[in-house]
């Protein structure tokens, strides 16, 4: 048995596995960073209004919420993890390029938004994002093949059952919306399985070699990769003119960078060390994690906080670049601003030791959510291209602090080995369910009231919750999971010593009683025998 264990350790190269895992995580995050932060900005350049942009982004998050765990379970059940990883990289890169085939409502509008660095928001052809763009909707139409403009007498025409016929009968704005919605849904279906599938295979491989502790640093590499992607893409695009290679807008370079980095990740994916642990039931583990969250009052408060953080965070992710563009920011300002926020978030683990000595995890959670609320409130008062940069430093005590507090909460409640499933429940609540709801509501708020009131309303709502959170945490009972390793080592404590002494005293007394009874029997046995 010992020889087999030594042979197993000799066959598995832990350092090589960790290096491949970190490289793959870095490259995938870098690819997403090249395009995802700038995605809603590209939709704005195409002519998509805020409400429709919110619907597209909300649908994207909800697809990930449902499809990601299902794809991960199916890939494990059929032992097709490497096929799913490779297919996800190839298909997502292809669909990203297909998105560039969608034509904007007007080329002049795209040129105006490209040349507005340093210009006030009033010079935009698209108008105020908080008001319906009636002028643009009447002037610019997509080519539907009929050569005629859509009129209101035609919003009452009976549509055919054929979807393509219905699409041609729509006005340009709805045509653009449905084309983007379909393409984004396909893109998310292709890219959603990548993260969990690769994460499960790598973690089970390292756990099989008893080296899963080293895999915990993958989150830092993901943040570093995203920072390099968003900062590098923003810097590169800002150096180009409005159009490249004819009539191709320079914003298309974000999608080309995404496809290029995803393609470079393919050789790394081919050598990823993956392992299939059939004994682990991932679906059952997620259900138990949900039950743990429901059964612990403090864990439930943490879940509600992460959900609200996801709702508010979607407002920042979807419309912050719109706000920056309205105040003269270019892709350079946007990219560096986003990169600074990610680097600040990655720096929190360096301060976690000192923070944990001053504040409890519950208070750190409240401080983190308050920091995000203050960021949103600051974004509503931007005045120049670089104005958003100082607020990004708060991401260290915002998203970084919340991630640390949630991780401590999982370790405090879940059994050993179940922390990852519980962490995934919190991430699903924050990044997908909360962000999906926030995108739907945020788009409507921007359409009705404008960008400024979106950030102010989100800030006020989150800060009010943070005021009530400490009181709710104080009234909630604290529950800890049973630490079996401490129980096994309890024989060295004072309590165990006293208990063992009592047991020895009881045993000695019983032996003495038994000995005395035996002597009494021997004493009277000869008398009975002679009688």
From TrEMBL:
Keyword tags: Membrane, Transmembrane, Transmembrane helix
Gene3D superfamilies: MFS general substrate transporter like domains
Occurrences of domain Major facilitator superfamily associated (ranges): 23-456
Membrane topology: Multi-pass membrane protein
Compositionally biased residues, Basic and acidic residues: 501-516
Top-level taxon in the UniProt lineage: Eukaryota
Positions of transmembrane segments: 20-39, 83-102, 176-198, 219-246, 252-276, 297-316, 426-447, 453-472
Metal-binding found in the keyword field: no
InterPro entries to which the protein is assigned, alphabetical: MFS_assoc_dom (IPR024989), MFS_MFSD6 (IPR051717), MFS_trans_sf (IPR036259)
GO CC annotation: membrane
Matches recorded under Pfam families: MFS_1_like
Family to which the UniProt record says this protein belongs: Belongs to the major facilitator superfamily. MFSD6 family.
Protein's UniProt name: Major facilitator superfamily associated domain-containing protein
Taxonomic source organism: Mola mola
